[in-house]
Inverse folding.
């Protein structure tokens, strides 16, 4: 099993200039895509169908090479493919689940006409719901920890949502949400839901969360690479919060690909309950008490049980666990910006750091990573260099 390694060349820490137009691959200068998307009836029609981008320049800047482990299943050029979920209208992959959960609940008759909706959120699901709910006739209330970045609450309010902020547990650090903080948010969300007879989205247990990625994200990825003979995805890494995108994408890759795709759960270094539970892997950097915080918002909550992962774990679809530290996630998000012109958040950086580890270990050579949200959600956190 891999430990988080230092994979960023010293020169990058010193801030060398990296040009985007590296020689490895020609950049297309066509001004417009051949087919613009059709006229949308509402913003709901613009969720999903996000771009998939080759990160040749990012890989070249790192000098990325395939590792020598025997399990590398083909000799293709090392490559990371980035699914730009930051280009969804609410700037995160969570727009997909907001739409799918509401859609399925209405279809099943468990969400009544005009019924208010409540959800616990780190901000991204809430932003998706703040967009989707009013368009479908439901008032929305988001319950969020004060430890999440301020701009997330501002964005939900801008979209018309009510936002209830819950103070963090004693000892928690600003911009770092722990499992204890989340438990407090859950308590408030449950109470609000009961008092107001609201529909609870329950993103941690609702199967429609994973379905959104099975039916959307991963299906799109396979469609997007099918006409590229030099691309054969053999790895997938995903930083886990609810586990919805890992479960949905992994299930689709395992079911639909005729070749092996090595799927790895990503957790923050020092907080790796899933790795410890399923592999007895010890994390030598494991923190205790109030220092169990990290900067990668949206996951790493120190929860050893995640309902949405049960099926993929039971089917043996989880091939491993990778850990990423704060610095690695931050450096990779910044490198993505410098080399590829893509503005992703901390968890995008965590996924890229894990993709690099997977390639260097030789367990895969062409790896998909989600750019879960936009860097613009972190102006008040330490993502942007000062
Ligand atoms: C920015 C970001 N990255 C990653 C995740 C984790 O995604 P999932 O809940 O599908 O595991 C979340 C979840 O809220 C998120 O907001």
């Amino acid at each position: 099993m891999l430990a988080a390694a230092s994979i960023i060349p010293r020169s990058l820490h010193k801030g060398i200039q990296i040009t985007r137009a590296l020689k490895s691959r020609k950049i297309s200068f066509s001004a417009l895509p051949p087919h613009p998307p059709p006229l949308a009836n509402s913003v709901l029609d613009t969720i999903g169908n996000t771009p998939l981008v080759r990160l040749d320049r990012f890989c070249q800047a790192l000098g990325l090479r395939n590792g020598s482990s025997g399990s590398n299943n083909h000799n293709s050029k090392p490559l990371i493919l980035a699914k730009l979920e930051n280009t969804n209208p609410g700037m995160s992959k969570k727009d997909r689940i907001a739409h799918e959960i509401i859609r399925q609940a209405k279809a099943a008759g468990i969400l009544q006409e005009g019924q208010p909706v409540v959800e616990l959120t780190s901000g991204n699901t809430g932003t998706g719901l703040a967009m989707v709910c009013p368009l479908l006739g439901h008032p929305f209330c988001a319950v969020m920890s004060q430890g999440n970045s301020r701009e997330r609450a501002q964005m939900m309010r801008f979209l018309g949502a009510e936002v209830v902020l819950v103070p963090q547990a004693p000892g928690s650090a600003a911009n770092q949400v722990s499992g204890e903080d989340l438990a407090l948010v859950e308590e408030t969300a449950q109470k609000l839901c009961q008092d107001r007879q609201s529909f609870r989205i329950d993103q941690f247990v609702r199967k429609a969360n994973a379905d959104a990625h099975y039916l959307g994200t991963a299906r799109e990825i396979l469609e997007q690479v099918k006409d590229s003979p030099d691309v054969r995805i053999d790895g997938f890494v995903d930083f886990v919060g609810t586990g919805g995108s890992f479960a949905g994408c992994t299930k689709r890759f395992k079911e639909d690909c005729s070749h092996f795709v090595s799927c790895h759960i990503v957790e923050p270094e020092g907080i790796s309950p899933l790795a410890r539970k399923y592999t007895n892997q010890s994390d030598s950097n494991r923190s205790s008490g109030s220092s169990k915080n990290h900067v990668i918002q949206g996951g790493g909550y120190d929860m050893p049980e995640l309902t949405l992962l049960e099926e993929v774990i039971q089917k043996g679809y989880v091939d491993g666990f990778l850990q990423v530290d704060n610095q690695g996630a931050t450096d990779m998000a910044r490198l993505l910006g410098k080399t590829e012109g893509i503005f992703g958040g901390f968890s995008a950086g965590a996924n890229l750091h894990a993709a690099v580890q997977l390639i260097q270990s030789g367990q895969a050579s062409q790896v998909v990573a989600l750019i879960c949200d936009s860097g613009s959600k972190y102006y008040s956190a330490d993502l942007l260099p000062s």
